[in-house]
Amino acid sequence: xxxxxxxxxxxxxxxxxxxxDELTMNVPKGSIxxxxxxxxxxxxxxxxxxxxxxxxxxxxxxxYGKKSDEKDIVKARxxxxxxxxxxxxxLEMTAEDNLKQQYxxxxxxxYDGLKETLELVGLADTGKKKAKNFSLGMRQRLxxxxxxxxxxxxxxxxxxVNGLDPQGIIEIRExxxxxxxxxxxxxxxxxxxxxxxxxxxxxxGFIDQGHIVKEISADELHTLYKKCIHVEVNDTxxxxxxxxxxxxxxxxxxxxxxxxxxxxxxTQFVLALKxxxxxxxxxQERSENLESFYMSLIDGDTYx
Length: 304
Ligand SMILES: Nc1ncnc2c1ncn2[C@@H]1O[C@H](COP(=O)(O)OP(=O)(O)OP(=O)(O)O)[C@@H](O)[C@H]1O
Prior knowledge:
Elements: E1 3-14, E2 17-28, E3 32-36, H1 43-50, E4 58-63, E5 66-67, H2 73-78, E6 80-83, H3 95-105, H4 114-120, H5 136-148, E7 154-158, H6 166-182, E8 186-191, H7 194-197, E9 203-208, E10 211-217, H8 218-227, E11 229-233, H9 236-246, E12 250-252, E13 257-260, H10 266-275, E14 280-285, H11 290-298
Helix pairs in contact: 3-5, 5-6
């Protein structure tokens, strides 16, 4: 697999405090990479580092195959765009003028593609309206439009849906999907709105206390959910006898609760339990979601 970004044992220390602690992550080309972690876990620190706004205390990263301490990293960074914290827009200007400003900053000779970019982000009809009168979602989309002027193939969006209303969230979601699918832009999104992220991400990196605790693709995650059946029985010791005989993967949580990770033939299973006097109290396919997976990871109760 080809990777746009790879970090290796990346650390950032502030005095004795480690904001990033030997962080290793891999962002596949073409992915929408959900970068998940609670407040203060180090997401923004990592993003600022990749953008060249901060330097590693130790470890390194590769962007488009260029190492962070190589001179060419500056060139590699020109291929990416980032909206970190608040989008940097001029509030007194229209959407069009904001984009023109960016063309000037980048020293581009013409405004080629400006109209198309406004259309792409759904701001083509904003006319003379100044950005200060835009909704939060419109500002966010303008921020993204500005980063698109440099024609990046990698976008970093730090908490892009924070504070948006439901309509704003849908518009950003559709834009992100469009950029990824139609323009083949790899996108790293940091977020703690997991329900939203699960509608977008193809890959996940879960960060806790400056460290990646798990990287997993959305496909792998779905397989993991699908296979999991939660059972409640009168005695899990009896249950394990049957599961061992059936050569099934499982995890016991208590004297009465367990998860089964392999597909089983339910009738055969229940009959086998009956034979050893194991009573089934309940049995259900686990309605897992990203949130519970994340919680299980940071609680130290890993699935895999
Ligand atoms: N300049 C600094 N000096 C000291 N500590 C810092 C500095 N910058 C960040 N930190 C600390 O590093 C940790 C990680 O911060 P960071 O902003 O990367 O977290 P985050 O995951 O982005 O959180 P949030 O979702 O709140 O933005 C926090 O505990 C923060 O207080």
